[in-house]
Each structure stands twice: as structure tokens, then as C-alpha cells.
Design brief:
- The chain is mainly alpha-helical.
- It has one domain.
- Helix 4 packs antiparallel against helix 5, helix 5 crosses helix 7 and helix 6 runs antiparallel to helix 7.
Length: about 230
């Protein structure tokens, strides 16, 4: 039997999560940057990232704590299924990501997108801060917003639309600063690199029955990437 999708997120929690996406994506980074400039404090990009994600992490804990708690209970109600979803999702992600990279190589000389390069640069400056952001803060913040609130809200009415919209918003979230300041038509192809992750994370949320399933998968993907960067440098 086909499993019914359940979203243990209340309407206020969903509204808060969706409304916070533009704040976390645009307003908060700009606001912090302007604040630090105004008070004469110069922060490296890695510390600005850490500050922004710390604030967002606190916001998610305040507004979605009950959702995270309920979803944690759901995790143990379907623990084996959730762990299978995480394991399969990790395999599917790397297969899909490899396929996308292969396709991009047909059109681009270098498939290292500006967001990935920025993360590498920040990791070289402060690897511990980037590890905390990528493995702890980002999975909880982003999965609550993009999969829990955005995908979950649309999924209750239209499954395909939920995948498409959440994938597009997730890709735009990672690339908008670079597209805004240095837009090249070819750079839009970098958005394809975020489609496999978005689809697999949403599928993991669906199949696992708990937001903690994609949170764990997201953390694993970022941890592997962080270790790879550390080895590379």
C-alpha cells in the first residue's frame, strides 16, 4: 500500500518556516554585514556565515521546536525505514550528482561553482566553523525551511509541484548572490548541481516519515564534502 504523506507541522510553523526563507537568504546576511560595518567591526566571510547561521538556528529552535520534537518521535516510530531512507538517499545522491557533473563537463570547462569555491575558501580560513555550520546548523535550518515548511506545505496538495518548487528555491538559495553580482547565462547551469540533493532530501523526508531523516542525510552529505575539502587542502 502506498504510504500516506504526513506532515506534523502546524500552520503557524509552516508560515514561520516559509516566511523565514527570504530573511535567512537575503535580509540576514545583508543586515549583519551592514551592522558590522556600522560598528566598525570587520569580519571575514566565514565568521559572517557562522553568525548568520547561528541566528537562524536559534530562530528555528524557537519557532519549530515542537515540530522537531514531534518529528523526532516519528523517527523512532519508523526508525528502520528512516535509516534505510538515509542510506539509500546517500547512494542515490552520489549517483545523481556524478551524472549531473558528467553532463556539466560537456558544456563547461570548470564545474566548480562559485558557492562551492566560497565554501572551500572559508574552510581554509576556519575549518572548525565551517564544520559546525555545514554539519549541525545548515541541515537543521535548511531542512526545516525547505523540506519541512516549503516542500511539506505544497506536498499536501501536489506532489510533483512540491518537488519542482522546493528544488528550484533550494538551487536559487545557494546561487543568488553570485548570479546577482556577476550574472552569466552559463552560470545558471550550476543550479543543476543542487537538484539531486533537493530531490533526494525531499524523497528521504517523504519515505522516512520524519524531518530528522533528511537532516541526517544532509549532515552526512556535508560531512563527506567537508572531509574531502580538508584532504584536498
Amino acid at each position: 500500500m502506498k504510504k500516506t504523506f504526513k506532515l506534523p507541522m502546524t500552520v503557524p510553523e509552516r508560515v514561520a518556516g516559509i516566511a523565514y526563507i527570504p530573511i535567512h537568504s537575503f535580509a540576514l546576511p545583508f543586515g549583519l554585514q551592514m551592522l558590522f560595518i556600522a560598528i566598525g567591526l570587520e569580519l571575514e566571510a566565514v565568521n559572517l556565515t557562522l553568525a548568520a547561521y547561528s541566528i537562524s538556528f536559534l530562530f528555528i529552535l524557537i519557532t519549530a521546536f515542537k515540530f522537531l520534537k514531534r518529528s523526532f518521535s516519528d523517527l523512532f516510530d519508523n526508525f528502520i525505514g528512516a535509516m534505510q531512507s538515509v542510506a539509500l538517499g546517500l547512494v542515490f545522491y552520489f549517483i545523481a550528482n556524478t551524472a549531473v557533473s558528467f553532463v556539466l563537463l560537456r558544456f563547461m570547462d570548470d564545474i566548480v561553482n562559485p558557492n562551492s569555491q566560497e565554501i572551500i575558501n572559508e574552510a581554509q580560513l576556519n575549518p572548525d566553523a565551517i564544520l559546525v555550520v555545514s554539519v549541525l546548523f545548515a541541515p537543521i535550518v535548511e531542512e526545516t525551511m525547505f523540506r519541512g515548511a516549503l516542500f511539506g506545505s505544497i506536498r499536501k496538495r501536489a506532489r510533483v509541484a512540491a518537488y519542482v518548487v522546493s528544488a528550484l528555491v533550494f538551487a536559487l538559495y545557494h546561487l543568488w548572490p553570485y548570479l546577482l553580482y556577476d550574472l552569466h547565462a552559463g552560470d545558471l547551469l550550476f543550479a543543476l548541481q543542487y537538484i539531486p540533493a533537493s530531490i533526494v532530501l525531499a524523497w528521504c523526508f517523504e519515505r522516512g516519515g520524519s524531518i530528522w531523516a533528511p537532516i541526517m542525510l544532509h549532515a552526512l552529505i556535508n560531512l563527506i564534502a567537508s572531509v574531502s575539502i580538508k584532504w584536498a587542502v
